[in-house]
Design goal:
The structure is a homodimer.
Chain A lengths: L1 H7 L9 H11 L6 E5 L12 E2 L9 E2 L3 E4 L1 H4 L8 E9 L13 E5 L11 E4 L3 E4 L2 E4 L9 E2 L10 E3 L7 H9 L4 E5 L3 E7 L3 E2 L10 E2 L2 H11 L3 E8 L3 H14 L2 E5 L9 H7 L5 E5 L3 E2 L5 E5 L2 E6 L3 H19 L9 E6 L3 E2 L5 E11 L2 E6 L7 H6 L2 E5 L5 E2 L4 E6 L4
Parallel strand pairs in A: 5-6, 13-16, 13-17, 14-15, 17-21, 19-24, 22-25
Antiparallel strand pairs in A: 1-12, 2-11, 3-10, 4-6, 4-7, 5-9, 8-9, 18-20, 20-21, 22-28, 23-27, 24-25, 24-26, 26-28
């Protein structure tokens, strides 16, 4: 096991690319596809865990496709505008009723769209092509056998696979399940994500802020980001700045959740207390510490008690961007969700940008229309400022090896929030 | 009032375009922007109902931007690698603490990132540029006043508008609110939508299906579509096929919801019972009956008791497509939501298509890759078949005046389900 990590990463704590981090984690942990059985009304947006086979034919009976008269087709042959065929009206069939009548020769029955074709009939005449006189109906156009009839099973045969495992339950898919009488549906379980903040200076939103203290931003923001990628967040609060307290909270998270996300306390120096505490929870421990990405350097990835623990930077902007790049794809994949629809726009860079070689850089930008063109203006408030992120419209990526992006060059901006 | 409709629509029951229907409805009903006050943890994805102004400076105190030593900048002037300045270590300040110490001349205090700068100090020296020897610290580089300090209010001044009414509460926006200690937030109220199905042949999903009966598809499918566009659905069940029963159910819907959506029973013939029943609920009644759109002809739009009632076709495929075109934009707008992110792809039409002049046609298609190109193959099962919609990847629009779309011509396919 430890050998295996060594094979992959000569020094497990060296700075690695996000792709590499993903690969290392993949060797130690694969999300298990668990199943929830939920009522149809609560299944929207979830992912089917199993193929669905129809237990019934659709339609379940031969039904009229028009309002008009159920007839024996042969009786109408030869009918024309000039020489209508005269049929005897023997009753009516409404939608929702099961007809007890049976058509004899030259008989007909009034019928509504969707109503069952009565015994003896094999077609329907549209009301527009007939005239009723008391209990006689004049038919002005012939119909072929099965004309204006939707035959049993013509849409769907019993035993047909109607939806595949892995499909998202859209309104149309929910309708399809309802059509074949399905009430309960097997869907992929969402990942339960324990969200923990660390930092002795933090207080919970709504608590009194003492002198020297600040509100926890990452807890609420990351919980929201977990929901947005299809996970179920549980906020475990603020870990103290000492190993035993951190371990207690992370252990709690591991006990009841599938994934733990802890932010803060993972940068160089005194802050290393968090990855150290998690490393001591058991093998394989910390797999990656340090991402070749800006923001995101202090990120770590660990596996403890068979579950992944993601350590995010303490700065909110960094924490949210690393979450989107590194954690969200796991949560989506584990829940069977497809990659998100990301809107990108091409824009000209508003000012020259210097980027460090050897790491990806994600640059938050504001979009501005100037001289008929779209410009992306980098936001320079720094990753310590949460307002950076709420002011940004999106971000663009500077690749690992690029050091300079010239003013006016075209960049591809990924919009935040699917908007 | 009635005159007003006449001005707009010489015959209020003539077939009109969806845009026109929207315009007529707009004269009789504008969604009211109501407000919910919700806790931050439940506000994700909602739309702010009011601007948010910060009641505090951010940061709330001058804080260290690095791990190192709080100093008086002037004391470090002249320090160099060869000639460090010697400062007296008088204590330490940790994040979350309020320092009681005060720096005198040539004093310094150990300080952690995020901790308050103690009185007397005006800068911080990075730990990397110092060496500690007992209670003496050698500083190897000078710092300017305010260097490595984040000043109170430098990110945000009290009284600054931090978020605008109409913004969606993304994870970053939730973080911004948390940062300034906000617990409860004013958001636009979602539209409560009463969903009613009509048809004597319908039974609820999960109920025993009697002979001649079919499961209600539209109820569950439309409820899901309401959720997907940001509304709150209430399923009111199945209306019987007679006026008084329909009126009772629609009245119930109007009493507790903002919008009523009823499907089925609005096509020509006996089915006209639904718009008739709704028309009798009061003025202005039915504003539009019949859309120049395929599917969607039997659609109607009414206003009763000051609230809109949308009548959708009974066929599930038609009902869902008309819902998306006509109803969803209203529900989104009333909740303050932006238009959905719709993914479109360009594809070649798989077979020649004939479309009726004088109406828009929405053609559901399956996408196929053939000879390196994307082809859109129309699904021909018809709007009666719910499986049409769940088999389709998306649809393209044939404009009002176009009658033929040639095989191989390029069409713009809007993908279903945001995917």
């Amino acid at each position: 096991m430890v050998n295996l990590i060594r094979d992959l990463v000569p020094n497990p704590l060296r700075v690695v690319t996000p792709d590499y981090a993903e690969k290392v984690l993949g060797r130690h942990w694969r999300p298990k596809a668990r199943v929830d059985v939920v009522p149809l009304g609560g299944a929207g947006g979830r992912i089917l865990a199993a193929d669905v086979v129809s237990a019934m034919d659709l339609p379940l009976f031969d039904r009229a496709a028009v309002d008009g008269y159920a007839v024996r087709a042969a009786d109408t042959f030869g009918a024309s505008e000039g020489a209508p065929v005269e049929l005897k009206l023997v009753g009516s069939v409404w939608a929702g009723e099961w007809p007890s009548l049976r058509l004899g020769k030259r008989g007909c029955a009034e019928i509504a769209t969707g109503a069952p074709i009565p015994k003896g009939a094999d077609a329907a005449v549209m009301v527009e092509h007939s005239v009723v006189r008391g209990n006689v109906v004049d038919v002005y156009r012939p119909v072929a056998p099965a004309e204006n009839v939707v035959k049993r099973g013509s849409e769907l045969k019993r035993g047909t696979k109607i939806l595949r495992a892995g499909q998202e339950l859209t309104p149309a898919a929910i309708g399809t399940l309802a059509a074949v009488g399905i009430e309960m549906v097997k869907v992929r379980r969402r990942q339960r994500v324990a969200v923990i903040s660390s930092g002795a200076e933090l207080v919970l939103a709504g608590e009194k802020i003492g002198r020297g203290q600040v509100c926890d931003v990452n807890g609420p923001a990351i919980c929201e980001a977990v929901k947005a990628c299809g996970g179920l967040p549980s906020y475990f609060g603020i870990a103290p700045d000492e190993a035993s307290g951190i371990k207690t909270l992370v252990r709690k998270g591991l006990a009841s959740c599938d994934v733990v996300v802890i932010s803060g306390g993972s940068s160089a120096g005194a802050g290393d207390i968090v990855p150290e505490a998690i490393g001591s929870l058991g093998k394989p421990g910390v797999l990656v510490h340090g991402l070749a990405m800006k923001p995101g350097k202090p990120t770590f990835v660990a596996v403890a008690k068979g579950k992944p623990v993601f350590g995010l930077p303490g700065y909110p902007v960094s924490a949210l961007m690393v979450f989107d790049q590194l954690v969200a794809p796991y949560i989506r994949r584990a829940a069977g969700l497809p990659p998100p629809v990301q809107k990108t726009v091409r824009a000209r860079l508003g000012k020259k940008l210097l980027s460090a070689r050897g790491r990806h850089e994600l640059v938050p930008v504001k979009l501005r229309r100037r001289r008929g063109e779209l410009w992306a203006v980098p936001i320079s408030k720094g990753s310590g400022a949460i307002t950076t992120l709420s002011a940004a419209d999106g971000y663009f990526k500077v690749p690992l090896e690029q050091e300079i992006v010239e003013e006016g060059s075209i960049v591809e901006v990924t919009m935040f929030g699917g908007g």
